[in-house]
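For reproducibility, we list the full input for the iron/sulfur cluster complex.
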Amino acid sequence: MNQSEQRFSIEVENTSNRCAIGETVSNRNIQEKRTPVLSCEGACIKGEIARLAANMLAKEGGFARACHGELFFVPGSAMANWVKQVEKTVLIDGCGLRCHGRMLEGLVDKKNLIQFNALAMHKKYADVFDIDAVPEEERLLAARQVADKVLAALKEDVVN
Ligand code: SF4
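The corresponding predicted structure, in tokenized form, follows.
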């Protein structure tokens, strides 16, 4: 790993392999001009709520879920092409560490990236790690709250 105080980089083995369904879905999303929705995919409850909220938002018209794995690690994939060519990508990070936001700012034009911090929206579970420590119903409620706030913020931005 190359590391400085401000930035670091990780070397990753390239691949010519592709995910067949990822290619199909991404090419369709390009054609349909859908807005990619990403989450940080963190393994704790905060990451889980961000992931669930991203899934909910992706069901709204004009949006579709993007896969961070292909975007980051399969650079020639249709998934990566889709996210890199759109004018707007929505990212929901689980907390203020912005793990995906910091990474994505090195991959896509920062002005095209609309970033949200799920924890700042639902304000719960700051001291919890385990996903199962929170009942599923509560997880879904918190995620719905985040998805609704993100959608409202995006609509307001379009209107203003
Ligand atoms: S942004 Fe927060 S919740 Fe998401 S992976 Fe990073 S530390 Fe975990």
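The helical segments are 20-31, 45-58, 68-73, 78-85, 99-104, 118-122, 136-159. The pocket of iron/sulfur cluster is lined by residues 40, 42, 44, 46-47, 93-95, 97-99 (CB under 6 Å). Both points were considered when choosing residues for closer inspection.
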